[in-house]
């Protein structure tokens, strides 16, 4: 698939979501951060808003569920029309069953790891996943500083995907900008979430294109 950019709408104008998404036609996906004020200390939006937005976005939605009861809710986001659904490893009680349920609903299944969660215990699970999200900030808020300490885990994830001959995408999320995206691409990421970098830019779509070009140059 090559390099893909999935802007997060967390720092967009939430009162005009469909318009905000229309400002980024070059994006491959639209990243939607769902927070429940339990798994993370912040509350954003849920299933009805995601369902409504999926009907107005020209790109598929990439739902990032920062919620405690992932086993119960994640398949519903696939059913609501998301193209990709990411649950957190720290929240899922039965990740294999959950990944299979998401895929059965026709969406890509993805699992996220917080900065302190290692990838090695999940090696056998990789074949069940279409994507792994390596968080590069503590989940909960946009606009945080990129954590370089997450890069070795990204390299390990890339080695494991190669070792098993898989096509699992590796996504990074948190503090991704023109300044940090090269490091992520060099370490093996191929899907890049960028929230504040895109929506604080004067021309958000030009920023999406610049991020993509920078990651492509670093990955080759
Ligand atoms: O999952 C997230 C936070 O938990 C967001 O997707 C992420 O922080 C995007 O925002 P930014 O690019 O500003 O860091
Ligand atoms: Fe996110």
From TrEMBL:
A GO cellular component annotation in the UniProt record = cytoplasm
Where does the record locate the signal sequence feature? none
| Pathway field | Carbohydrate degradation
Q: Which Pfam families match?
A: Ribul_P_3_epim
Q: What class of enzyme is it?
A: isomerase
Recorded hits in HAMAP family, A to Z, give: RPE
Write out the function statement from the record: Catalyzes the reversible epimerization of D-ribulose 5-phosphate to D-xylulose 5-phosphate.
Q: What is this protein called?
A: Ribulose-phosphate 3-epimerase
